[in-house]
Amino acid sequence: MQKKESHENTIDKLKWLIQEMALWKNEGIISQQQSEEILGRYEQEIVSQPNSSRLVAIISILGSILVGLGVILFLAANWQGFSIPLKLGLIFGCLIMTYTLGYYFAYEKKNFIKTGKALTFLGVILFGSGLALIGQIFNINAHFPDGLLFWGIGSFLVALTTKDKNIIALTILLFAAWNITEQARFYNLNYLFLGMMLVSLKMLIFPTKARLAFLLAVLGLIIWVFLTLNLLTDSFMVSGSGLVIFLGALYTLGRLPILEKERAGFSFLIRIVSLYRIMIILYAFTFQNIHRSGDWYQLFWQQHSDFYWFYGSIVGVGLIITLINVIGLAKQKKLYLIRESQVILGLVILMVTYLVTASEIASLIPTIIYNLGYLGLVLGIIAIGIREKSQAFINSALFFFIVDIITRYFDYFFKLLDRSFFFIGGGLLLLWGGLFLEKKRRKIINELG
Question: Which listed residue, of 181, 310, 338, 397, carries a Cα 20 to 30 Å from 71's Cα?
Fold first, then answer.
């Protein structure tokens, strides 16, 4: 009951603040931009409260999506019977109406802010469908991914104007979809995507602290690097090693003091996502068959020049970020973080060394090295979780550990044991392993307090 009263009091204060700011603007005390920044700060305070405000936002967004789908389906069902002027009128009329109502409710009257933002979100969806419909009206034979790009640019402009986090996330999603279709379907090197992400991070994500959009941007960049490496080389080992180096640079980037102090939520996201992807790739490298399937030395040194520029850029940027981080941490005397950076640097050296000497090494040796490296990284993640009192890191490490144990059991004992004993033994191992790991996990978490 007290929470409800507190929330109502906060809303009353916000209404009072809106009225006062209108007077301050008329008197020239504050500008329109300052007014929006002040209002946005206190709106965020209301949104963070676990009350009906967040539910209203979710319902409004879902409603806008359903309305958008309904409009698209209605137009599709009756499209052939409409004349071209009527078609264009419907498209532009829907856009103007949704954006106008959205602006009126959210930024003019400010009495139905969530509904207004949901209508603006609907306008972005209708803009994308409008692009497709206009292309169909005039039979424009265009490159399919360009539609996603133009949709993303339109969404970017709306997000830049409104600073709405949902629209920012949609913008990043559209850019990522554009990149994936360009690279995975049409096999085009899409360096423009990197520029779009950097601009979005600078102008949209960092100023608004949009965590979902940041997560999508990080995932989009990881996919872009992996697909680019795959287009430049036919070797999974080569592209996978390059991706690990990039992920190591990302993790180190998350440790930069400026990011940890000013964007703590971003720092955690970039580090946990990087570690997950590193562990997945290292897991693939623990199998001996992957080291038998090709002469990586010859593959590495027989690539096109574009590959060496891209791969060298990844290595160079990773080393620069790591060195900058080590120097900054040394000044702060954070020795444990320096060791962490040294581990990442060692991982980079391991990847590059293996690629350039693979033809001279028996397949069993790198298999052993990568298995030891995998288990060592699991222990390292547990150590990070204990030091930072983070259950996410501890649970992630234990998950990857049990995956490795199950894999090795199937890998080495499936052909040696009778099938019945194999499954009985496997079941008992899983039961015991589950109990053991749960006890250890609880013990660690209890010790963390």
Answer: 181
Residue 343 burial (C-beta neighbours within 10 Å; 0-12, 13-18, 19+): middle
pLDDT digits (tens, 9 = 90+) for 381-395: 888 888 887 888 888
Q: Is residue 332 part of a domain?
A: yes
A 10 A CB-CB count for 333 gives 8
**Within 13 A of 365's CA, how many CA atoms are on the CB side?**
8
Categorize the per-residue pLDDT at 33 as very low, low, confident or very high, splitting at 50, 70 and 90: low
Decide: 396 and 404 in contact? Cβ < 8 Å. no
DSSP 30: S
CB count within 10 Å of CB 73 equals 10
Which of 190, 290, 189, 281 has its CA nearest to residue 240? 281
* Residue 86 domain flag: no
Does any domain span residue 357? yes
93-126 burial, b if ≥16 CB within 10 A, otherwise e? ebbeebbebbbebbbeebebbbbbbbbbbbbbbb
Long-range contacts of 57-61 (CB under 8 A, 24+ apart): 57/114, 57/117, 57/118, 60/114, 60/115, 60/117, 60/118, 61/118, 61/121, 61/166
Kindly report the number of other CB atoms within 10 A of residue 4's CB atom.
10
User: Which domain covers residue 307, as residue numbers?
Assistant: 233-449
Query: Which of 419, 381, 417, 423 has the alpha carbon at shortest distance from 398?
Result: 381
Number of separate domains in the chain: 1
Residue 439 lies in a domain: yes
Give the pair of three-digit tokens for residue 33.
């931009």
CA dihedral 41, 44, 49, 54 (to 10 degrees): 160
